[in-house]
Design goal:
- The protein is α/β, with parallel strands linked by helices.
- It has two domains: 6-287, Aldolase class I (TIM Barrel); 289-391, no CATH class.
- The protein has 17 helices and ten strands.
- Helix 9 crosses helix 17.
């Protein structure tokens, strides 16, 4: 199973937006760019919402059938480890192996010694095409990589082999995530992380490294864009070199986690992947849930009343909602509107506060982040929430399709150079604009 060059993780927490997501990718195809969907959902999200991995598979299959999608698609067991992977084995064909808890934990001395011996041949100074500065490989660099990452990669190997024992090794796509390190990997570190992955026999097709700056939930990138661009291009160059040097899969590509709404980075990423003729996997999740809330707010009546109540509960339960996400949100609580203020809002005020339009004076980045992490409250509402999603299908599906296509796929994968190509009307595909 070979993952296509461009792919996007389309998280869908309540499992009702699959068709709208596919329509966005069909719109990209009319412009000559194929981006395949990967429905990603973590064990934590399933537990909160009360779904299971089979539900995600069912949604994906129904969406591609109803939309007439003729290309591959995938269902991702997102952020799994040995403790959680088994419930995903039957329904998933993409596995994001998360080893965050093992980064920095020591590997056995004999494993470190074996790694150091195997990498001895690379000591010295050499150039990687696409990176301006040469990489100086010393015993200190190799030992540092071994001490920080080798145990994590060995754990990834255990998870991969466990999956491969239950499924054919060519029947799923493995990804390794090292993006929860405390600092971005240098080109030298990433190179030898990939060497360790190769030694573990993991045929990874995507890797998620750590970048500078903050990739916060559902909002734009916070950090120095020039530094990100350099790191991104360096990583692309390292991957191309490692594929040849360590005999990794030829389609190995970068995976950008918490990639939704990183609008200021998309032009830089687009330029880089074309410069290197490289693939890319962008992982999104909560923006689809936020488009549901925006759609309900815009619809007025019961929809607006529900999302006002949802925000009031989120503020009351602030610590509970935010605790699992403290590393990926930055909320200034003093800038959150009061429940009484929100209760006086009409549809326009609520939508302007929540919709990610940085030019709007009503946009509130703190409000957006709090709603983003409060989907548990909608899950607790159960049929009351789901019933309104069904009632306001047209406006919600329009939001979801336009959000993925116009704000994500268009600037990242299609690019300005293709904007003159003929386009069909998204409304004709089933979403009302």
């Amino acid at each position: 199973m070979e993952l296509e060059k461009y792919s996007i993780g389309v998280g869908d927490r309540f499992g009702m937006e699959g068709k709208a997501q596919v329509r966005a990718l069909q719109e990209a195809e009319t412009m000559g760019v194929r981006v395949v969907p990967v429905w990603n959902k973590s064990n934590r999200e399933h537990s909160i919402i009360g779904t299971n991995p089979q539900d995600a598979r069912k949604e994906a299959e129904e969406a591609v059938q109803r939309c007439g999608w003729k290309h591959p698609y995938y269902v991702d067991a997102d952020h799994i480890g040995l403790a959680t992977v088994d419930r995903f084995l039957e329904s998933s064909d993409f596995f994001t192996i998360d080893v965050a808890d093992y980064i920095g934990k020591p590997s056995p001395p004999e494993s470190v010694a074996a790694f150091m011996t195997a990498m001895e041949q690379f000591k010295g100074t050499f150039n990687i095409p696409g990176i301006s500065a040469p990489i100086v490989v010393t015993a200190k660099l190799l030992e540092s990589v071994a001490q920080k990452y080798l145990g994590a990669i060995e754990e990834a190997g255990k998870v991969y082999r466990h999956i491969a024992e239950k499924k054919r090794s060519d029947a799923f796509v493995p990804e390794v995530s090292v993006d929860e390190s405390n600092a971005p990997q240098t080109p030298g570190e990433l190179l030898f992380i990939l060497a360790a992955i190769s030694r573990e026999g993991i045929p990874i097709q995507t890797i998620a490294p750590k970048f500078s700056g903050s990739f916060l939930k559902g909002i734009d990138y916070v950090g120095e864009k020039e530094q990100f661009a350099k790191e991104f291009e360096d990583d692309l160059a390292v991957i191309a070199f490692a594929v040849k040097t360590f005999r990794l899969p030829h389609n190995l590509k970068l995976s950008v986690h918490s990639g939704s709404d990183k609008f200021s980075l998309y032009p830089l990423m687009h330029q880089a992947i074309h410069k290197f003729d490289a693939g890319l996997h962008l992982k999104t999740a909560g923006t689809t849930w936020l488009e549901e809330v925006i759609g309900l707010a815009a619809s007025g009546g019961d929809g607006l009343a529900l999302v006002k109540e949802l925000y009031g509960q989120a503020l009351t339960r602030y610590d509970e909602m935010c605790k699992p996400y403290l590393s990926v949100i930055e909320i200034d609580k003093s800038k959150l509107p009061s429940p009484e203020q929100v209760a006086r809002w009409g549809s326009r005020e609520y939508v302007e506060a929540l919709q990610h339009n940085q030019l709007s004076p009503g946009y509130n980045v703190n409000f957006r982040q709090l709603v983003h992490v409060s989907f548990r409250i909608a899950a607790e509402m159960g049929e009351r929430y789901l019933g309104l999603l069904r009632e306001y299908r047209t406006v919600i599906e329009s939001n979801v399709t336009l959000n993925i296509f116009q704000r994500h796929v268009l600037p990242l994968f299609v690019g300005k150079e293709n904007l003159s190509r003929p386009r069909r009307n998204i409304a004709a595909a089933g979403a009302s604009v």
